[in-house]
Structure formats: C-alpha cells, structure tokens
Design brief:
By secondary structure, this protein is mainly alpha-helical. Helix content is about 55%, strand content about 10%. It binds tryptophan.
Amino acid sequence: MSNRTVLTGITTTGTPHLGNYVGAIKPAIKASHSDGVLSCYFLADYHALIKCRDPEIVHRSTLEIAATWLALGLDTDKAVFYRQSDIPEISELTWLLTCVTAKGLMNRAHAYKAAVQENVEKGEDADFAMTMGLFSYPILMAADILMFNAHEVPVGRDQVQHLEMARDIAQRFNHFFGDHFVLPEAVVDDNVAVLPGQDGRKMSKSYNNTIPLWLPEKKLRKSIMRIVTNSLEPGEPKQTEDSALFAIYSAFANAEQRAEMKQAFADGIAWGAAKQQCFELINAELADARAIYEELIADPDRIEACLQEGAQRAREIAAPFMRELRDAVGIRPLV
Ligand code: TRP
C-alpha cells in the first residue's frame, strides 16, 4: 500500500531534450517503479497557456511529451499519468485557493518580479504584457499539488519558491476551513546533473542550445558534433572540468566509462573521437525507446486512451476530495 504521494508536472510548451531527460524524466520514471509511493505525473497544459499562445505548439508538445514518458517505460499501472486539463476539479480548486491567497504573496514571486523588472528596465509600464495567468501561476500550481495531497514534489531549483507558496496557501486554507491539506515539500536532487548544452551553458530552450531527445540517429550525431570544444589538437592533454562534452558524456556513462573517458582526455584524445564515443553512448541508451516513441507518435489514439485512463484514476481521487472541500467552504446542497 502506498503511504506517500509524489507528484510532478511537465509544462507542455516544447520538444523534450537531453537536459529534460537527464534532469527530470529519467529519475522520475525510475522513481515510479518503487513500491510504497503513489506517483502522480501530469502534463501541465494549463500552465502552457501562460507562456504560449500557439495552439499547435501546445497540442503537439502534449503529444510529444506523453509519447516520451510512455516510450521511456513509465509504468502506468503504478503511476497515475494524466493531463491537467482533463481534471476539472483542478480548476475548481484553483478558485477556492485564489480566494484565500494573499495578493502580497503573489507580488513576491520571482518569475513575476523578474517580468516587472524587465519592463522597468525597458522603460515600459510595470504591467506591460502582464497577464493574470502569469501573476496567479503559483495558485494553479498549488492546486495541482494540493488536489492530490502530495507529500513530495520533485522539481528544479527554480520551482522551490512555488512550493513554499503552495505550503503557505495550504496553511491558510487549513486555518480557515479545517485540516484538509497536507503541506507538500519540494524535493531538489542535487545529484541529478544539470546538463550543459552545445555552448556550455545550461541546456535550455531559452538559450537555443538544446539537443532534442528523439533526433534520428544521423541528426543526433551531427548535433553532438556541434558541442563547443577548444582548439587543442589530438595528442594534447585536455581538461574534463569545464568541458560540456565531458559533462554530457558523463550524464550517460557509468563510473567505469567515465573514468576511461577522463583518462582519454588526459591522453589527448581527439575531439572528434571523443564526440563519436559520446554519440555512440547516448544513441545506445535511446535507440530502443526511440523506436517505441516513433510508433506511439504515429498512433495518437493509443496515447489518448492512456491519458483518459489516467484521468479516470486521478478523478477517483480528486472528485470526492473536491466534494469535501466544497462542503468545507459552504458550497453544498440546500437540503
Ligand atoms: N511549474 C512547473 C515548471 O515550470 C511545472 C508544474 C506545473 C509543476 N504544476 C506543477 C511541477 C505541480 C510540480 C508540481 O517546471
């Protein structure tokens, strides 16, 4: 029987890349196989609307991310895998939480403050291009988490403040209406590599330095060949520190392979040869899953059915809990 709930969401605004795989998807799928926890993973398509007004991107990204998690072996018998927008209780809860959330709390959100700051620096009005979606984003995220009374929420460092806000909001609701919510905790795994991109900065869509996860073999090789190195010649010893290539290789290597590559660097391996080995290692890890991914992407019905099943399981938890919460705030039948 599961006694702890682990939950995380993936915003559906892009194509999965190697950084997502190493930093989030792989550890989450591994965790989903462990006993004694209920894992809830969902596609945060409402969150996508905050950043993206291109319906085709939101739609395509939802398909690609779902196919990715399934191709990589997410155990959907164990984990509850669903699309946020299939759970109407989440938007309902968002409103109940909005009504207890202090505006001042939202004013302090890093993402919102950064957007204001950017406007001010450009000489614009502080509210320029600001939407209520961006401003209230942490409330929607709190609803995602509190709806399932998650204990642990694996996230990146940039999301820790949102977890603090979710706790704050939960506490306020509990204070007014009784003890309904578990106070969730952020789990930030410092052992999980932050993968550099081709230019050495963190691999991120915003830096345009990503290597998409499901590139066909030839393109994957090309993309790895483009990782920035320096001008040291074959035979000249090379440093592993500060090497994006070594960091990317390491994220896929076992301890022995990593030590061998470190030695090869010291022995002056040619950059081209090191890149070839990096390509082969990554390709070997992804090749089987890539074939499954291609099959799934070509069969959206199968993915949709899987998400519907996940939604049904999620709503078995969310619907009765929502009835309890509505009752607690006084929204209930008259007789
Ligand atoms: N905001 C998260 C991100 O950008 C995604 C997300 C939405 C999420 N809802 C969540 C993560 C609930 C954890 C729990 O990465």
